Amino acid sequence: MTSVHPPPVPGRELSNPPMDGISNLRFSNHSDNLLVSSWDKTVRLYDASSNILRGEFMHGGPVLDCCFHDDSSGFSASTDNKVRRIMFSHEKEDVIGRHDAPVRCIEYSYAAGQVITGSWDKTLKCWDPRGASGQERTLVGTYPQPERVYSLSLVGNRVVVATAGRHVNVYDLRNMSQPEQRRESSLKYQTRCVRCYPNGTGYALSSVEGRVAMEFFDLSETSQAKKYAFKCHRKSEAGRDIVYPVNAIAFHPVYGTFATGGCDGFVNVWDGNNKKRLYQYSKYPTSIAALSFSRDGGLLAVASSYTFEEGDMPHEPDAIFVRSVTEIEVKPKPKVYPNPPA
């Protein structure tokens, strides 16, 4: 995968960033509000367009993930094992449930009206946030996983769960009795991130070894023949390859192209269908920990936050950049076919 475009500037830096590592960030589906979770035990709510911190919510432990419900509330996953609902306007929160170990991932399913959480206790749990406060009333079901949950992603009624040990389980939220599919990652090394294609046909999976795999749900021979993996976030230095973990994947909501962020500090944009890199942004101060496109794809939020891949060492401060996205960066290029002979 190659490209020839010069890199633009990194974007506008948001004021009042977290004081410790950024674990995730998400744009709202309804506005340019941005929710950010951090190891400093906070969830922060920003108006990304106006560069205003709208709210800050302190938790009992580092926060490993967050997501929106709507523009008035969201959810968070913490190392204190709790799943919380945050009411932005009231500046309060309530605990909707607990795991037996840190909660690593959280998603809200608009299709099912449920909160989905994955934990290092090797379970996936579904919660109904409309129930009265308290785990007994809000817990819909607990689903054992083969290992600790590292990443999960939703599209429609499907949820894809990636765990330690390179396991991938695909569920249908309408029937959670057992996985619809049990898979093994086609990448040889530990999974960092899984994200479903916006069109619902499959998912992208990244690893610590500078690779991304493009997978499809349809098990037919024709569909499975389309899957592939590619190398990225690598460089050659003094005759040897230096390989960086790919921490983040974010799909563009309009074009279906996707961005990846790595520990090399670069964000690349890819056209998965045509197997090409469309763009590479100029290098950020440190590792890319998380990425999110806004609802219309006009903005890209980038978490520049050291992920301790080289141990405890001096590093650049954690920062959130928001950049405007142009079509040349994310729109697939039409294939050009040679003119047939006369």
Automatic annotation (TrEMBL):
Q: Where is the composition biased (Pro residues)?
A: 1-10
Ranges in coiled-coil conformation: none
PROSITE patterns according to UniProt: WD_REPEATS_2 (PS50082), WD_REPEATS_REGION (PS50294)
Q: Where is the signal peptide?
A: none
**Which superkingdom?**
Eukaryota
* UniProt entry keywords in alphabetical sequence: Repeat, WD repeat
Matching entries from SMART domains are given as:
WD40
Locate the region Disordered.
1-20
Intervals holding WD repeats: 96-128, 246-280
User: What InterPro entries has UniProt attached to this entry?
Assistant: WD40/YVTN_repeat-like_dom_sf, WD40_PAC1, WD40_repeat_dom_sf, WD40_rpt
PANTHER family named among the record's database cross-references? MRNA EXPORT FACTOR AND BUB3
| The protein, known as | Mitotic checkpoint protein BUB3.1
Question: Could you tell me which species this protein originates from?
Answer: Hibiscus sabdariffa
